[in-house]
Design a protein that fits this description.
The complex is a heterotrimer of chains A (170), B (241) and C (151). With 170 residues, chain A is α+β, with helices and mostly antiparallel strands. Chain A contains three helices and five strands, in the order ααβββββα. Chain A folds into two domains: 56 residues; 87 residues, Beta Barrel (OB fold (Dihydrolipoamide Acetyltransferase, E2P)). In chain A, strand 4 and strand 5 form a beta hairpin. Chain A is elongated, with a radius of gyration of 27 Å. By secondary structure, chain B is mainly alpha-helical. In chain B, 78% of the residues lie in helices and 2% in strands. Chain B is built from eight helices and two strands; from the N terminus they run αααααααββα. Chain C contains four helices and six strands. Chain C is extended and about 70 Å long. Chain C starts with a helix and ends with a helix. The chains are: A alpha+beta (170), B mainly alpha (241), C alpha+beta (151). The interface between B and C is large, with 54 and 49 residues.
Chain lengths: 170, 241, 151
């Protein structure tokens, strides 16, 4: 029965396509640049995404009005951030988040215009992989089992399985 | 009557499988790529699109098992018994996956993989009940007797369903309350689209899986019967001169 | 598998189910289940309960959060509407922990003055929407938070 394998090749193909698209989406819109790389790379006018933690005792400014300055730490690296943009919904000291902005190497300050929550994409990917693989494997194993059973019944040649979709006798 | 309905529906099981694949692929696309992150959880909200459909499909599967068990005890229809057994094993898979994805969601949001929250405990009890149900069926030698015991067990275990559903409303929990309730719908449209697609996809997939599994159970019985007949024939030809 | 082993296995599986169902019906569950206590109940603690490890759920009072740089930690207030208790925690709190949101803290009401927490869990509400809607001031219907505490 080639039908089964053709069908599953199609399903596998679409799943892989979705996985590739998601990975591209992640790299283009969600991945962050390590702070150390940003500090050592040549100045660029492109906005970048960096991840870090707001250092304790450094957050100042009108958070509700969308203005703040703070120190941003990522491991051994740290930098000073001046934020000006939409009101900050999700900011507090000791919180890890993502900033979108430009590194001003002359004034040694990161000018942020937008924030985002850390993407936690490892968790998202894990949840999707577990569910898709778990369900897909089970359905595939079941379809294959039906195929094998039909073959075995046919080979035991006493009588043909009924034409009924289930094989039940009326 | 129900026997005939089940067989009629079985004939169209390919449509259920195809529909499930379509809905789930659309759901995966919108859920992973074409929907915005949540204001408070960010990208993590995407885990909801698999966790929630898996969880309520598993309660749907248990409802099928519960209803089917009552019907079986009443009418003793072997097809319904097969359907119950099929629902139970598929329900166990959905329950386990819902627990795993829930745990993956809980770590970055709540800050723990597991906690003794009423919703989590009642859901784990569902998995234990299913484990017991499947073990019982496998271990009792007489399949008719095993089916009867298992049906009684499934009906008694049904008290877990309302407990799961309302645990987040009745007791203090870390798990958030229901998003669909008399209070209204507390999920915005963009986030509702992938959730609905995945939910419909999971329901259809469950229906498809139950049909295929029921078919497997029947075909296995058929094969056994045939082999038995072949065996008795050889036996017959050997013993008679 | 021998018949005897099989019988044992059947009994074990029935016990397993009966046990879990019994737990649902009579155990820690049902009427008596308390996943966390509220700040009001903590305030009513007597001295012998001070050293006990408990979970307390409440809402983080807006404007009460203060962090310390060395050693890294924070203090905040937890309320159930009627009563408020101060909480101290050493370490970095989870990312979803936020003022005006729910939290469940594990620890001890050690001296009858401050709750010393060893673990913070963030409780999130059941509303989901994109940032644009939140900034536009949309409020989706949700359960009154204080009600979720007083059950």
């Amino acid at each position: 029965m080639t039908g089964l394998y053709t069908r599953w090749a199609l399903i596998l193909g679409v799943t892989l396509l979705l996985a590739i698209l998601t990975f591209q989406h992640y790299q283009q819109h969600l991945a962050t640049l390590p702070m150390g790389t940003l500090l050592s790379s040549p100045p660029s006018s492109q906005p970048v995404r960096i991840q870090g933690m707001v250092k304790s005792g450094t957050l100042q400014g009108e958070v509700e009005q969308g203005q703040a300055t703070f120190e941003f730490v990522d491991g051994p690296a740290s930098l000073v951030v001046e934020y000006e943009g939409p009101p900050l919904e999700n900011i507090r000291e000791l919180k890890t988040l993502v900033l979108i902005g430009r590194w001003d190497s002359q004034n040694q300050v990161f000018k942020a215009q937008e924030t985002a929550l850390i993407n936690n994409f490892g968790f998202v990917a894990a949840a999707y992989l577990v569910s898709v693989l778990g369900l897909g494997w089970m359905v595939f194993a079941m379809s294959q089992r039906v195929m094998v059973l039909f073959k075995e019944i046919k080979e035991s040649k006493l009588y043909e399985p009924e034409a009924d979709s289930l094989g039940y006798k009326e | 009557m129900i026997n005939r309905i089940i067989r009629q529906i079985q004939r169209y099981k390919g449509w259920f499988g195809g529909g499930a694949a379509l809905c789930i692929f659309l759901g995966l696309y919108t859920g992973l790529l074409a929907s915005p992150p949540d204001y408070y959880q960010g990208e993590l909200v995407r885990i909801m699109y698999v966790h929630v459909p898996l969880a309520h499909t598993s309660t749907l599967a248990y409802s099928v098992l519960f209803g089917g068990s009552i019907w079986y005890l009443w009418k003793r229809d072997p097809l319904v018994d097969n359907m119950c057994q099929a629902s139970a094993s598929i329900c166990a898979l959905f329950t386990a996956l819902a627990l795993i994805t829930g745990s993956i969601w809980a770590k970055p949001t709540w800050n723990t993989w597991w906690t003794w929250d009423p919703r989590l405990v009642s859901f784990t009890v569902l998995l234990l009940i299913l484990g017991g149900y499947l073990m019982l069926r496998r271990l009792v030698d007489d399949p008719v007797r095993g089916g009867r015991y298992a049906a009684i067990l499934a009906i008694v275990g049904g008290i877990d369903l309302p407990i799961i559903k309302f645990s987040v409303e009745w007791w203090r929990t870390l798990h958030q309350p229901m998003s669909f309730s008399t209070r209204g719908v507390s999920i915005s449209e963009d986030i509702l689209i992938p959730l609905t697609l995945m939910s419909i996809g999971c329901w259809l997939l469950f229906a498809y899986m139950v049909m295929v599994r029921t078919q497997i159970l029947y075909l296995t019985e058929l094969l056994h019967a045939k082999k038995g007949r072949l065996l008795s024939q050889t036996h017959f030809s050997q013993t008679t001169p | 598998m021998g018949t005897k082993n099989k019988k044992i296995a059947i009994i074990v599986s029935i016990l397993l189910i009966a046990g879990s169902l019994g737990y649902l019906a009579f155990g820690n569950f049902g009427e008596n289940i308390v996943y966390f206590v509220t700040p009001s109940e903590v305030k009513a603690f007597t001295a012998e309960a001070y050293s006990k490890k408990v979970r307390v759920g409440g809402m983080v009072v807006k404007g009460s959060l203060k962090t310390q740089p060395e050693p890294v930690g924070l203090t905040f207030e937890l309320t159930d509407g009627a009563n408020t208790i101060p909480v101290a925690f050493q370490g970095i709190p989870p990312d979803l922990f936020k003022e005006g949101q729910g939290a469940v803290v594990e620890g001890q009401w050690r001296d009858g003055q401050t709750f010393h927490s060893t673990m913070i869990m963030a409780k999130h509400s059941e509303d989901y929407m994109p940032m644009e809607l939140k900034r536009a001031g949309v409020e989706l219907p949700k359960k009154d938070f204080m009600k979720t505490l007083s059950q």
